[in-house]
Design goal:
The complex is a heterodimer of chains A (472) and B (193). Chain A is α/β, with parallel strands linked by helices. In chain A, 52% of the residues lie in helices and 10% in strands. Chain A has helices at 14-22, 25-47, 52-68, 70-83, 94-107, 119-123, 126-132, 142-149, 166-177, 185-202, 228-234, 255-266, 299-303, 319-323, 325-330, 341-352, 358-362, 372-376, 383-398, 402-414, 417-426, 429-433, 448-453, 461-470; strands spanning 86-91, 112-115, 136-139, 205-208, 212-214, 219-224, 238-244, 248-249, 274-279, 289-295. The radius of gyration of chain A is 22 Å and the shape is globular. Chain B has a single domain (35-168, 177-192), classed as 3-Layer(aba) Sandwich (Rossmann fold), CATH 3.40.50. In chain B, 49% of the residues are buried. By secondary structure, chain B is α/β, with parallel strands linked by helices. Chain B starts with a helix and ends with a strand. In chain B, a hairpin with a 2-residue loop joins strand 10 (169-173) and strand 11 (176-179). The radius of gyration of chain B is 21 Å and the shape is globular. Classes of the chains: A alpha/beta (472), B alpha/beta (193). Strand 9 (274-279) of chain A pairs antiparallel with strand 9 (161-164) of chain B, so a sheet runs across the interface. Bound molecules: iron/sulfur cluster. Chain A: Residues 311-381 form the 4Fe-4S ferredoxin-type domain.
C-alpha cells in the first residue's frame, strides 16, 4: 500500500522538529500573539452561552451515534445525494481519491480549478496529485493562499498561515503578486480580493471540502468567512466535494448543535460570516454538476480502535491547538502533518496506522497531558486519554526507547514558558532532547503516562538537579 | 474481481464493530427570547449597517443614483425612482459591475445576528447576493427567530441556503477579524417594524 500523505514525506520526528522550531523566536512570537488573541476571544464567545456544556454533550452524542451506524448513514447519504442529481464516489485511500478527482477534472477539460480550504484535500495531497496530472489548483482562502504563494506548509487547521505575521505576508504578496501593498490586514485582504476575482468569475471547476453532510437530506454544509467559499460553491459549472466518511450527521436537526459549537470554538464568533448549504443540484442556481467523493484513508482503521475512535468526532475547530502550550512553543509544522496540535497528535498516527513509523509514533508524545485540549473541545474528545493509549501502542511497537521518553520529557518542558526558559539557561535543553539521555525516573506532575506506566525517564542529571532546585 | 471501494469501506466499518450509542440528549436551550433589539445589536457587532425603519420605500431612497440588482419577485414598492434597477437575466459580468443588490430574506436569527437566504421570495439565486459589493437586506420583524434551533429547521432544507452574519471578513492575519474580502464588503440590514 502507498504511504499515507497525511504526514509529509521526510519529516523528522516531533522532538527533532520541535528542537529546531524552538530556536525560531519570530515563529514563537507570532504564535504567542495569535493564539493569545484567539484564546481570550473564544472564552468570551463561549462564556455567553449558558447551555454550552449541554451543547457539547449533544455534539459528542450525535457524533458517537454517527460512528455507531456509519455504514447505514453513508448509504443513506449516497441515496439522498443521488436523488438530487449528485454523483457519489468512494475512495479507500488518498491515491484512489486523487485519481477520482483528477479524472473528473479531465472530464471537464479543466487545467485550472479553484479550491475552498479543505482539510480532507490537504490530507490526501490533492493539489500535488492534480499538478502532476496537469491541473493547477488555486487556493482561494486567504491563509491557504499565503501558504501556497509562500511555497510553505500549513501550521494550523483553521489558519494555515498562522505562523506568518503581517509583514511576512506583505513580503510574500509583493514577491508573488507583484503588487505594492502595506502590511495593514485590510490592505492585504484587498490584494487577495483583486488577485482572485477574475479566477472566481471564469473558472469552470471548483473543489471543496465539507464541514457536515446531512444523511437524511443529502445536504452539504461549508462554513467560511471570506466569501471565497461562496464563490467556489456558486459560480463554477462543476463542483467536486471531498469529504471524510465521518463528517456525517444523521438529520437536519443535528445541525442546530454544530452551527452553535463550531463558530464559537474556531473563530470565536457567534456565527461565521457565511455558511453555505446545498443539496445535490438546484436547476438555475449554482453548479449543475455535483460530485461527492467520500474518503476512508485510515478512518475505518481508526474506527476499529475503541479508545482512539473518538478522534473521529473532531469537527476541526482548532480550539485545542490554540490552548496547547506545546503547540504554542513548537508551531504546527513540527508535527509533520496537516493535522498539528493535540488533535494531530492523536489523529495523524491513527490515520497513518503504523506505529513502526518513527515520525507518526513520536506524535502522541507531543503533549504534556495538561488537559486544556479536552476542556475546550466542543465534542468532548478526551485527547489526554487517547494520547496515553497511543503512547502505550508506540512503546509496544518500538520498545521503551530513550527517544520516546525524551519526547515526553521534551513535551513536558515545552508546556511551561518558565520551565523552558530556565532549562534553556541552564544549558540542559540540548541534552534533554538528545536521544541518548539516560536517567531513572522523574517526578512529572500531571503525566498520567509516566505515573501509570512507570516508564523510565531519562533526562540528564543536570535536568534533575535543575528540577530539584526549581520544583515548587 | 476486487470488490468495489464502496463495498470494502462498508465492510471495514462493519468489521470495526462499534457498539450502539446512547440516545442523544438535547438538553440545550431550544428557544430564546431575543427579538428585534437583540438582532439589531448583534448584526451591528459584525460592523454591518443596521437601520430600523417603518417605511421601506422611503429608506431605499439612499440608493438613488446607483445601479442596483433586484430579484424578479421583490415587491413593486421597493423599486423606487431614481435607482437604475438591474433585473434578471443578468450575466456574471453584469452582477460584478453593479453597485449593489436589494433582497429580502427567509428568516433571521437574533442570538447570532444572522440572516438566512433560501432563494425564496425576493431573494433570487445565490450569485445575486454574492457578486455585488453592497447587499441591502430587508428583514421584517416577524421574520426574526430568537435562536439557532428556532431558525435552523427550514421547511424545505434541500433549497440552497446561505447563512449571512455580517459582511465578508477574514481572521487569517494574526487571528484578528477584518471586514471585506470576496463577498459583499458592505452589508446593510433594514429591519422593518
Ligand atoms: S479535537 Fe476537538 S478541539 Fe480539537 S479541532 Fe477537533 S473538535 Fe476542535
Amino acid at each position: 500500500m502507498a504511504r499515507n500523505p497525511v504526514t509529509w514525506l521526510g519529516s523528522p520526528t516531533f522532538p527533532q522538529a520541535a528542537h529546531k522550531a524552538l530556536a525560531d523566536t519570530q515563529l514563537r512570537q507570532n504564535l504567542r500573539k495569535a493564539t493569545g488573541t484567539i484564546r481570550g476571544r473564544r472564552a468570551a464567545a463561549v462564556g455567553e452561552m449558558t447551555d454550552w456544556e449541554q451543547l457539547r454533550v449533544a455534539g459528542e452524542q450525535i457524533k458517537d451515534d454517527v460512528l455507531s451506524r456509519l455504514d447505514t448513514l453513508l448509504v443513506r447519504l449516497e441515496e439522498s445525494v443521488t436523488a438530487r442529481g449528485g454523483v457519489v464516489h468512494w475512495a479507500r485511500d488518498a491515491e484512489e481519491a486523487n485519481r477520482i478527482v483528477l479524472g473528473l477534472c479531465r472530464e471537464e477539460n479543466a487545467t485550472e480549478v479553484v479550491k475552498v480550504k479543505s482539510m480532507a484535500t490537504a490530507e490526501i495531497g490533492l493539489n500535488e496529485a492534480l499538478e502532476a496530472g496537469g491541473v493547477h489548483a488555486v487556493e482561494t482562502d486567504l491563509a491557504e493562499l499565503i501558504v501556497q504563494l509562500g511555497d510553505d506548509r500549513p501550521s494550523h487547521i483553521l489558519v494555515p498561515a498562522i505562523h506568518r505575521n503581517r509583514s511576512e505576508i506583505r513580503e510574500i504578496f509583493r514577491r508573488r503578486m507583484g503588487v505594492e501593498v502595506s502590511d495593514e490586514p485590510a490592505d492585504l485582504a484587498e490584494a487577495a480580493r483583486v488577485y482572485l476575482r477574475q479566477k472566481f468569475l471564469t473558472t469552470k471547476v471548483a473543489i471543496s471540502g465539507a464541514n457536515f453532510a446531512v444523511a437524511d437530506t443529502g445536504s452539504i454544509v461549508v462554513l467560511e468567512s471570506e466569501g471565497n467559499g461562496r464563490m467556489c460553491l456558486t459560480l463554477p459549472d462543476t463542483l467536486i466535494t471531498v469529504m471524510g466518511i465521518e463528517k456525517l450527521v444523521p438529520t437536519w436537526q443535528d445541525l442546530e448543535v454544530f452551527l452553535q459549537l463550531l463558530p464559537r470554538s474556531s473563530t470565536a464568533e457567534r456565527m461565521n460570516p457565511y455558511t453555505s448549504v446545498w443539496t445535490g443540484v438546484t436547476p438555475g442556481d449554482g453548479p449543475q454538476k455535483f460530485h461527492l467523493v467520500l474518503i476512508d484513508n485510515g478512518r475505518t482503521a481508526t474506527l476499529a480502535d475503541s479508545v482512539g475512535r473518538q478522534a473521529l468526532r473532531c469537527i476541526r475547530c482548532s480550539a485545542c491547538l490554540n490552548v496547547c502550550p506545546v503547540y504554542e512553543r513548537t508551531g504546527g509544522q513540527s508535527y509533520g502533518s496537516v493535522y498539528p496540535g493535540p488533535i494531530g497528535a492523536i489523529l495523524t498516527p491513527q490515520l497513518v496506522g503504523d506505529m513502526h513509523d518513527p515520525q507518526a509514533a513520536s506524535l502522541p508524545f507531543a503533549s504534556s497531558l495538561c488537559g486544556a485540549c479536552f476542556e475546550v473541545c466542543p465534542v468532548r474528545i478526551d485527547i489526554p486519554s487517547v494520547l496515553t493509549h497511543l503512547r502505550a501502542e508506540a512503546v509496544e511497537a518500538k520498545g521503551r526507547t530513550a527517544e520516546s521518553v525524551a519526547m515526553a520529557a521534551a513535551a513536558w518542558m515545552f508546556a511551561s514558558a518558565s520551565r523552558y526558559e530556565k532549562a534553556q539557561k541552564a544549558g540542559s535543553l540540548a541534552r534533554f532532547l538528545a536521544r541518548d539521555g539516560r536517567i531513572t525516573s522523574l517526578p512529572w506532575p500531571g503525566s498520567k503516562w509516566t505515573s501509570s506506566r512507570d516508564v523510565p525517564a531519562p533526562p540528564s542529571e543536570s535536568f534533575r538537579a535543575w528540577w530539584r532546585k526549581n520544583r515548587g | 474481481m476486487a470488490s468495489s471501494a464502496k463495498e470494502e469501506i462498508l465492510a471495514r466499518i462493519r468489521g470495526a464493530r462499534v457498539p450502539a450509542a446512547a440516545p442523544v440528549v438535547r438538553g440545550y436551550h431550544r428557544e430564546g427570547s431575543g427579538g428585534v433589539e437583540l438582532f439589531a445589536e448583534r448584526v451591528a457587532d459584525y460592523r454591518a449597517v443596521v437601520r430600523t425603519v417603518t417605511d421601506v420605500p422611503e429608506a431605499l431612497k439612499s440608493l438613488r443614483g446607483k445601479r442596483i440588482v433586484a430579484p424578479s419577485d421583490v415587491p413593486d414598492e421597493w423599486l423606487v425612482d431614481g435607482v437604475t434597477w438591474l433585473r434578471e437575466p443578468l450575466s456574471i459580468e453584469e452582477l460584478d459591475g453593479s453597485d449593489g443588490v436589494l433582497t429580502g430574506c427567509a428568516v433571521a436569527i437574533a442570538d447570532t445576528g444572522t440572516i438566512v437566504l433560501d432563494g425564496g421570495v425576493a431573494q433570487g439565486r445565490r450569485a445575486l447576493t454574492l457578486l455585488p459589493d453592497h447587499h441591502v437586506c430587508v428583514v421584517r420583524a416577524d421574520q426574526i427567530a430568537a435562536s439557532v434551533p428556532d431558525a435552523a429547521n427550514p421547511p424545505e432544507p434541500t433549497r440552497p441556503l446561505t447563512f449571512v452574519s455580517g459582511p465578508s471578513a477574514t481572521s487569517d492575519i494574526e487571528l484578528n477579524r477584518v471586514e471585506g474580502v470576496h463577498g459583499p464588503r458592505t452589508l446593510e440590514v433594514l429591519i422593518v417594524t
